[in-house]
Amino acid sequence: MLEAQGIQLPLEGRATSTTENRRELGTQAQVDVFGEGMRDFWKSGPEESKHINYWLADNCFGDYYTRTGLSYAQREMITFCFLAAQGGCKPQLTSHAAGNMKVGNDKAFLIRVISQCLPYIGYPRSLNALACVNRAADTQKQSTDKEEIKMEKNLIIYYSRKGQNYVNGSIRDLSKGNTEICAEFIQKAVGGDLFEIKTVKAYSTDYMTCTEEAKVELRARERPELKRYLDSIADYDNVFVCGPCWWGTYPCAVFTQLEKLDWTGKKVMALMTHEGSGLGSCERDLKRICVGAVFGKGLAIHGADAAHSEREVASWAKAQI
User: Fold this and answer.
1) Angle formed by the axes of helices 72-86 and 22-34, to 10°?
2) pLDDT (tens digit per residue) in 77-115
3) Residue 311 in contact with residue 33, Cβ under 8 Å?
4) Is 207 exposed, middle or buried, given 0-12, 13-18 or 19+ CB atoms closer than 10 A?
5) What mean pLDDT value characterizes the chain?
6) Which CATH number fits domain 152-320: 1.10.10.10, 3.40.50.360, 3.40.50.700, 3.10.180.10?
7) Distance from C-alpha of 14 to C-alpha of 182, rounded to nearest angstrom
8) What's the pTM?
9) pLDDT digit string (tens) for 278-309?
10) Facing residues of 239 across strands?
11) Is 231 helix (H, G, I), strand (E, B) or coil?
């Protein structure tokens, strides 16, 4: 059947962990899905049974959740379906309902999932699953209410290019820019507001022409006019500045915005998508422009891998604030 669909066999391996590091990576996956409270879960529990919690981190999360091909949201949805179908797993089902919500599968989505499963698992198990979703949603709301003020203190400023982009040695059309994908991963991980930088004069849709336009701007130290500006970042503590690597640094349009702001007392983090240049000089440029700020560790994401970088971006973003 796979070959009939044009899928080449054998399938490409998806493992990213080894027997040496799978427990550590599995623990990080648990933290990413359920929160920091899972950091030491693998070594908790009564002496006679704590090995089971170790296996959970080492095998279930370290071997399976760390594989590529499926996102956390997809894996959590599948796990939720398995547990709902099994029955008798209310504590685990409630926990995974909460995990689903944490990675983006909200209450309404889970209710739709239960509705699809109902003909196969029956009304009793479907109603039990619904009760677990409601319990997890109530707990999440209480937690969100407490953290709301903190969540509003993060700002993600980004410039992103869709359409023609250089990807792994060739020019491809992207429906969404790589930097926008990463910026949304940051927001999903730590909350906050997104601000997209858009120029009044659009860059060429042709990739090669665009690169020449960007080079001319950089050499002339131009500051392209933007469609809208942030007037103040006084309400924010942490600012993520995200952009593609154009000639070793951010597009000049990013500097247009940054130079208009007071950075005193802010914490600034750089994220750059690239096809081989890493962070370039962007961190040095930020330190030159964002006077009065303190700076966190920057992160370089290979553009071609942006869509699969959620775990890396989320872990990095959480560590910065």
Assistant:
1) 80
2) 999 999 999 988 999 999 999 999 989 999 999 999 999
3) no
4) middle
5) 92
6) 3.40.50.360
7) 21
8) 0.55
9) 999 999 999 999 999 999 999 999 999 999 99
10) 155, 268
11) coil
